[in-house]
């Protein structure tokens, strides 16, 4: 090695050393805290005497503000109640043959004959299942919420595009709207608007607005400068250029935003039923779950899933890229023929109502009225195979959940594992962790060793046994080194506020449950995504499954988990995994399929085996895409916390749900913002890590 090269390598080692110095100091502090936590229990359990009554302060401010502005919001609620009733009456007046004809025509125009057939089958199932009136009421809510969200999102998106200085504030507000659980701001909506369907409508509109805002800004930002300049050179005024040049150019992206807004509004139907229940599908799912009528739960949940898939395909079909070209059926269904088909549907509806104004035209008995035998059959399966389901639940509980929650040191007892952890066994464990950390240094450097040591420490103490000063300092230091000082201070302030509000135990429960769910999703979803990337048949099989999982409302995932495994943290884990497993499947497949072919060929020509090519070439090159999938997996897992609280968790989601039941705006808002803080922190950390990996 030449002298300049040796000097450069020495300088690189010297440059890495300062970054590891704080971690060495933190390691020493960690050892001290672990040695002293028995004598100083406040290192693990934050004393209640040290907490601040911030929730009561928020309640006091909320009560004072609500008393002043409540009359105006109640007036708005009354104004929105009229169109809500009108939409429900209009859809109830339309007979099902007219609705089927209109939807089939729209499906044919959107995506062709296959979607038209799927639409007819979906509506036929809803009719035969006996949920037609409830489905129409659900569509009434969606049809009113989506225009509100679309218009509001478009206006805010245009504002963010035209005023770059406002964009950071707007993006921060959008992050909060998308990460704060709906249950948290439902409390304020109940106080302002009262109880009823209108509250569900407003909650759905608020939840569905952010996708339209983001897609509007993205679409307008992507308008080529040449097109804008061409509009100016043609003599357009600023208003003409915007409406006749920029908006038509951005229309495909705006339609994607409309699609996502519609799906977001539909996903809120069960949450809306909790606070403003009326006879809709969300209320049917909720009531059947409360009665443990699993047959009806599956039927009604399948209605929501099919409606979600149908609406998703309808809206995304209109937003498709024109370059892909329409099918023959889509070319046949011109705009004029579409209008004729819709007019024919309306004419059929009028004729039917004139001939039989009071006829329901619905099956006398739907499938849901005959599900008693199915309920008994399902309960019989659960009862007869309870040994299997209990065995699976107990195995996961004692082998995964408990070690993550209370650590090996807490689980290794005669009562739980049947064996006590001796000092010798503990010493062997730590020697093994140090040996693995030494191997990680060779392969991944100092950062890999730190990850291994942190994982070994958490596995030994569990999340509940980890001293809170160590946890806060470690995450803040990591955020500061990965994304800068501002994010480090943000992490420090956020965890400190959660701590002084007395929500640290709930935070720890949330972290361990989400961490385990994300790890399992990455393991299972990553394996499935890798398999799909190397097999077109597997990819075709997984695509509709992922589509169904991605379009189903969150509550639907609780039905099978609750049916087979009853209430508890394992049920919550299953529901979170079902909702969060789609991103790793899709992002891993996408990343591996789009690795440069010449790089793969070069590695294979060097004699690498398929496994070596995957691990040493494809995965490293696809890492930025995989990290984005990790980001989305974490977001999905955190968003399910409040929903999973319904099956018996004791995390931040449960705190939000309990606050909703007590109308405690202060605690609900603080717990909801705590979940939003975790989501935003994880998002910024992963974005910074991806940016560093791509620039390296």
From TrEMBL:
* ABC transmembrane type-1 domain: residues covered: 135-315, 507-686
Q: Report the domain of life of the source organism.
A: Bacteria
Q: Where this protein primarily resides, as one coarse class? A: membrane
Q: What are the UniProt keywords, alphabetically? A: Cell membrane, Membrane, Transmembrane, Transmembrane helix, Transport
Q: Which residues cross the membrane?
A: 20-38, 50-69, 89-108, 114-132, 139-162, 182-208, 261-278, 298-318, 338-356, 426-444, 450-475, 487-504, 510-533, 570-588, 621-647, 667-686
Q: Where in the cell is it found?
A: Cell membrane
| PROSITE patterns tied to this protein | ABC_TM1
The family line of this record is: Belongs to the binding-protein-dependent transport system permease family.
User: Sorted alphabetically, which PANTHER family does this protein's record hold?
Assistant: GLYCINE BETAINE/PROLINE BETAINE TRANSPORT SYSTEM PERMEASE PROTEIN PROW (PTHR47737), GLYCINE BETAINE_PROLINE BETAINE TRANSPORT SYSTEM PERMEASE PROTEIN PROW (PTHR47737:SF1)
Identification of the protein by name: ABC transporter permease subunit
